[in-house]
Amino acid sequence: RASVKKITTGSQALDGLLGGGIETRTMTELFGEFGSGKTQICHQVSVNVQLPPEKGGLSGKALYIDTEGTFRTERIKAMASALGLEPKDVLQNIMSIRAINTDHQIAIVEELQDIIAKDNTIKLVVVDSITSHFRAEYSGRENLAVRQQKLNRHLHQLVRLAEIYDLAVIVTNQVMARPDMFYGDPTVAVGGHTLYHVPGIRVQIKKSRGNRRIARMVDAPHLPEGEVVFSITNTGIRD
Ligand code: ADP
Ligand code: MG
């Protein structure tokens, strides 16, 4: 694990929980309710990956697969400015792709292999969110098995990209306030545990008071379990 690199989240507390930051060669799943801050973290890490290593980045570019239409160039620019970076340059180093359905989302990831093979400066791939299209298109218990099979294959492809190209993968997964309503749905985190079995790190994000958020490490193979508090501010993710 010596060659694993880390990208800062902007919060020392959250970095600490993650063992130094978002890791390369690993898929990190952020799961939590609507508004918990998953998309904000994805935006921040897409900016921070561009920082030089001494500032917590990898001097790299980001690929952002947006399935919910929540990617915001204005937010990226604000986060870049706050770090003293040129907003236009930072935006140019984030390739955002809107995925319109599961087949499109899967096809994009299949094509990434070629894009990344040609451009070794890509150090982060975001899929925000990994589950929304799958849930919408394969609703109902009778479709669960085929959905799980497709989703698992898709997730394993992402894990492989991370491992082969030494890059970080972040996926988000929105879970409901009342997971008991979705009993039997393996993509819904019940009691904080996502029930599909793909290697990686899982972090639950929970709302706290005001702009405060709680991050909780779940089932990490090499990191201690624990909880930390961070904030979502005008300038981005902070302590
Ligand atoms: P999720 O993706 O988990 O549904 P988001 O990442 O979209 O949630 O987080 C939304 C929250 O982030 C908002 O409710 C707000 O609290 C915070 N937020 C978004 N933009 C800003 C901003 N410019 N300044 C401060 N907080 C913000
Ligand atoms: Mg979101």
UniProtKB/TrEMBL annotation:
Coiled-coil stretches: none
Residues included from the entire protein: 83 to 321 of 324
Amino-acid positions noted as binding ATP in the UniProt annotation, renumbered to this chain: 32-39
GO molecular function, a single term: ATP binding
Name listed for the protein in its UniProt record: DNA repair and recombination protein RadA
Source superkingdom: Archaea
Protein's gene: radA
Family: Belongs to the eukaryotic RecA-like protein family.
Any one of the GO BP annotations: DNA recombination
